[in-house]
Amino acid sequence: MKLKQFIITSLVVLSFIDSLAQSNLPLSRELYSVDSQIDLQLKKFSWVDTGTLKKSMIIKVLRNADVFFNQTLDCYTRSFLIKDTIYITGYMMGELGWGFQLEIYNDSCIAASFGLSDGNIYKYNKSDVDSNSFILLPNVYQKVILAKKPVFQDNEIIAGVT
Fold first, then answer.
1. Residues with Cβ within 8 Å of residue 58, at least 6 apart in sequence
2. What is the side-by-side order of every strand in the sheet holding 145-146?
3. Among 131, 125, 157, CA closest to 25
4. pLDDT tens across 9-48, in order?
5. How many Å separate Cα 70 from the centre of its chain?
6. What does 62-99 look like in DSSP terms, one character per residue?
């Protein structure tokens, strides 16, 4: 029962956080690909614990032509299944900072990077009056490769790269 409450609470919080953004970036639906060889690439990462791969998330944030943030971090993931859609959120330790959201459904997906702070520090444009604690960031490219096609069942393990 606690897991169900956690999932419902997470959905409500994520929906609320998403609604705080000043304007949504156009998120496009893309086809994901399946490549069983991706498992070999994933084996180079060791598990910190369930849902956490050591040094598996590379975050590079640019400010104009300058690199503002460039690190390789442990990737913590949280995922849940609602009807025919798998929702995966990957984030750095503590949940604040940088991360990504991935929705997988049928043969398609939507991926978005984000910044999350405990204070209102983000603006989409310098001229914006209001700041927010959450901001969607444009992806340099969007490519999702899964080790196998999901069957969209509870407790299924989804492995891949984005």
1. 71, 72
2. 33-34, 145-146, 160-161
3. 125
4. 444 444 444 444 444 556 778 888 898 888 888 888 888 8
5. 17
6. EETTEEEEEEEEEEEEEEEEETTEEEEEEE-TTS-EEE
